[in-house]
Write a structure and sequence with these properties.
Number of domains: 3
Shape: globular
Strand content: 5-15%
Bound molecules: pyridoxal-5'-phosphate
Strand order of the largest sheet: 2-8-7-6-5-3-4
Distance between the termini: 46 Å
């Protein structure tokens, strides 16, 4: 086996989730544990925790899946079951796709890429070129491809935040390139200081690392912060001065819980607004159908927009995309729906809006509730989530627990998270999987468990935490 494969670590699907799967199987087999179900808070996978899919999206998807339903002989029946705009959208998509069982264009279906470009134009107020948009299998495959083309040898470095989403560190291990970490500031609500970026790039270059790009996750995962426009301008200026490509991971762009104080701005928009000087700044931005209020993670939809990228690089990207033939067509349909949902005046608009708003409001309430719960616990502090789907509290783990972890050859935060899983069935991921300031311990939990079960979810964690602290307190 290639040693690089062995070197990869991916905590979101690591030891904790593997144990959680085993516990879940035990429960399914009728075994009695101290809890009724395993709650998978290790991953932002809303429908795994019973979030209801958006009705319009599934209506269109199901009609595309079974075009027999659209035939004249079935029309009456279908019109009873589906609203007219869902039928019309499915017909339009199928006209442009043909069969969804066929390979599509390797960059994605041209009609859908045009719709994505129109969405970006509406969002940002600046033009987007459908030829510079690639539809991808979730954002992950776009990120992997871009990291692959940006890294040439093992002295190439890519700046990534700490804490980070492990897709970045894992992909860099696979392509044998170096992560160049910059730390987010926990005391300033996980804020990003451009002086830290400068320090990090200078130190790495002094060690001979060829630093090529900067990754920004906005809103942050696991940290949940949203960048201010001013901060984004500084970041773009930094990239421009240091000749770094900017990778903007914007998959949580609609998961914004303080829209007045902390609205979302895309890097594309901010870059475009900065005038002529910056119009050669290279940018890749990523979006996904897995997040937001959609949560269609399993459909693997996403897109990548390339801004100011040389045509020859785009040709190479196209070639690499062609090796996989095409992104899956179900995901592409979901991208069309995400970027082009029922508009005001459409038959389905009201239902779409009410479903979307209900999920959004509920996520916002659950984010606050879980942060309040964490902040009420002995030795735990937690920043609010301005965005995304996660909290990343810090825990002061008692010395005795650190010793007990050492005996088991585990990191203290992994020891804590494993104890929580065994006691409550709640699966979170230790901070070591994301990176953290040395000497600090964290874990990441989603706030996705169902709202009607949220109180009992919080009280299970409270009870466990108190027991853990009592057991290991000096
Ligand atoms: C910051 C970030 N980027 C990218 C992804 C990848 O998501 P997907 O490949 O499902 O679009 C995730 C998933 O959790 C994420 O949190």
């Amino acid at each position: 086996m290639h040693p690089l494969v062995r070197s990869v670590e991916y905590a979101v699907r690591g030891a904790l989730p593997i144990r959680a799967e085993a516990l879940s199987k035990q429960l399914q087999n009728g075994e009695k544990l101290g809890f009724d179900r395993v709650v998978f808070c290790n991953i932002g996978n809303p429908q795994q925790l019973n979030q209801k899919p958006i009705t319009f999206f599934r209506q269109v998807a199901s009609l595309c899946e079974n075009p027999e339903l659209l035939k004249a002989e079935n029309r009456q029946l279908v019109e009873k079951l589906y609203p007219k705009d869902a039928i019309a959208r499915a017909e339009l998509l199928l006209k442009n796709i043909g069969s969804i069982g066929a390979y599509s264009h390797s960059k994605g279906i041209p009609f859908i890429r045009e719709n994505v470009a129109k969405f970006i134009e509406r969002r940002d107020g600046y033009p987007a070129n459908p030829e510079h948009i690639f539809l991808t299998q979730g954002a992950s495959s776009g990120v992997q491809t871009v990291l692959q083309i940006l890294t040439q040898h093992n002295k190439c470095g890519i700046m990534i935040p700490i804490p980070q989403y492990p897709l970045y560190s894992a992909t860099l291990s696979l392509v044998d390139a170096q992560p160049v970490p910059y730390y987010l500031n926990e005391k300033q609500n996980w804020g990003l200081n451009v002086d830290d970026l400068k320090k990090s790039v200078e130190e790495s270059r002094a060690k001979g690392v060829d630093v090529r790009a900067l990754v920004i996750i906005n809103p942050g995962n696991p940290t949940g912060q949203c960048l201010s426009e001013e901060n984004m301008r500084e970041i773009i200026d930094f990239c421009h001065t240091e000749h770094l490509v900017l990778l903007a991971d914007e998959v949580y762009q609609t998961n914004i819980y303080q829209p007045e104080q902390r609205p979302f701005h895309s890097f594309k928009k901010v870059l475009m607004s900065m005038g002529e000087k910056y119009q050669d700044q290279e940018l890749f931005s990523f979006h996904s159908t897995s997040k937001g209020m959609i949560g269609e993670c399993g459909r693997r939809g996403g897109y990548l927009e390339c801004v100011n990228i040389d045509e020859q690089v785009l040709d190479q990207l196209y070639k690499i995309a062609s090796i996989s033939l095409c992104p899956n067509v179900h995901g592409q349909i979901m991208v069309d729906l995400m970027t082009n949902p029922p508009a005001e005046g459409d038959i389905s608009h009201e239902q779409f809006k009410s479903e979307n708003d209900a999920i959004y409001e509920s996520l916002r309430r659950r984010a606050t509730k879980l942060a309040t719960c964490f902040n009420s616990l002995e030795g735990m502090t937690c920043n609010d989530a301005e965005g995304a789907m996660y909290l990343f509290p810090q825990i002061q783990i008692p010395e005795k627990a650190i010793e007990a972890a050492k005996e088991k050859n585990m990191a203290p935060d992994a020891f804590y998270a494993m104890a929580m899983l065994e006691a409550t069935g709640v699966c979170v991921i230790p901070g070591t999987g994301f990176g953290q300031e040395p000497g600090t311990w964290h874990f990441r939990s989603t706030f996705l468990p169902e709202e009607h079960l949220f109180d009992s979810f919080c009280s299970a964690i409270e009870k466990f935490h108190q027991g853990f602290m009592d057991k290991y307190r000096a």
